[in-house]
Specification:
about 350 residues; alpha/beta; Rossmann fold; seven-stranded parallel beta sheet; 13 strands
């Protein structure tokens, strides 16, 4: 039985929340298991991990890919200090296994753990693994992946598990239709400017339907005041927040979710059986968000608007068509559930236990 585990990575909710789901499964199996997260001070892990009741340690590390030579040089100069901090954490916590979930902290943690003889694995959410995980592929003992396309990057070490989702998403009750349609808008944990701007433009077109709509809009910190001011000039029933801590509660209220199409978002929608109107982030690596959205649309669980085609008029039109067809929303919800992997976290921890014993 695993007594101590380090989960490394973070930055965005898309990396952190699968780690939380994995941590919850470790604690379910062994309440005395010590779970430690390793992240950076600028990532959302500083808010999310402590709130979820887990210990968080921080290291200094930054991007090496897709940045200027100056920033890359600065990042390289950080590495010796990062490696030293990682080594000290391994000596302090003596983990039975180290799991990387993506993000800056994952690289140094898994590399040093592997060189120190600690069993390591990655949990890859996307069809195309990120730069860090592609580099780590030669060092780790195993990989838990969500898509068949990702297996080839891990040299025969990968198993398809699905993307781990926090257990509470699977307990979201089925939505009972009512006269009021609840819309949740979220561009991810940091918001999405394109969605925010389109929604601001859509407000006048939605006003005639104000008696049927209740909108909860997560804007991100940067656009919060602008979006809040735009809604304030309307008569729509709306709650605007820069960040939603208990997003699962908002999923429970929602009849329809307007969102990006990151792997974690798609997995949470499926777990909660919620239909979605997705606007994929167009600059995601290998356009993987578009591929995610296309898969959801093919399954009948959602609709997609490409950001290049997004406007207030298009968003309002798609939204009004969907909320005007309760039977269609119900079918989309049922289709969404078929995409869920309720045993993903269980399977990831099974792999962790296996490599611990090897």
């Amino acid at each position: 039985m695993i007594r101590s585990v380090i989960i490394a990575g973070g930055g965005t909710g898309g990396h952190i929340y699968p780690g939380i789901a994995i941590a919850q499964e470790f604690k379910r199996r062994n309440p005395n298991c010590e779970v430690i997260f390793i992240g950076t001070a600028r990532g959302l892990e500083t808010k999310i991990v402590p709130r979820e009741g887990f210990k968080l340690e921080l290291i200094e590390v930054a991007a090496l890919k897709g940045v200027s030579i100056t920033k890359r040089t600065k990042s390289l100069l950080m590495l010796p200090r990062s490696f030293f901090a990682v080594r000290s954490f391994i000596q302090k916590y003596k983990p039975d296994v180290v799991i990387g979930v993506g993000g800056y902290a994952s690289g140094p943690m898994l590399l040093i753990a592997s060189l120190m003889g600690v069993p390591t694995m990655v949990a890859e959410q996307n069809a195309l693994p990120g730069f860090t995980n592609r580099v780590l592929a030669r060092f780790v003992k195993a990989a838990a992946v969500s898509f068949e396309e990702a297996k080839s990057f891990f040299r025969g070490k990968a198993e398809i598990t699905g993307n781990p989702v926090r257990a509470e998403f699977f307990t979201v009750p089925a939505k009972v239709p009512s006269e009021t349609v609840n819309i949740l808008i979220t561009g991810g944990s940091q918001g999405a400017r394109a969605i925010n701007e389109a929604m601001i433009t859509a407000i006048p077109m939605l006003e005639p339907h104000k008696d049927r709509l209740f909108i909860t809009h997560q804007t991100g910190e940067l656009d919060f005041e602008k979006v809040k001011a735009a809604y304030a000039t309307s008569s729509l029933h709306v709650e605007v927040k820069p960040f939603i801590e208990k997003i699962v509660d908002e999923f429970a209220k929602a009849d329809l979710v307007i969102c990006r199409a990151g792997a974690t978002t798609v997995a949470e929608l499926a777990a909660a059986s919620r239909p979605a109107l997705m606007i994929p982030f167009p600059w995601a690596a290998d356009d993987h968000q578009r591929k995610n959205a296309e898969a959801v649309e093919r399954a009948g669980a959602g609709r997609m608007i490409l950001q290049s085609e997004l406007s207030g008029e298009r968003l309002a039109s798609e939204l009004l068509v969907l909320i005007g067809d309760a039977a269609r929303l119900a079918k989309m919800s049922a289709a969404s559930k078929t995409l869920a992997h309720p045993d993903a976290a269980v399977r990831v921890v099974d792999i962790a236990e296996k490599i611990r014993q090897d």
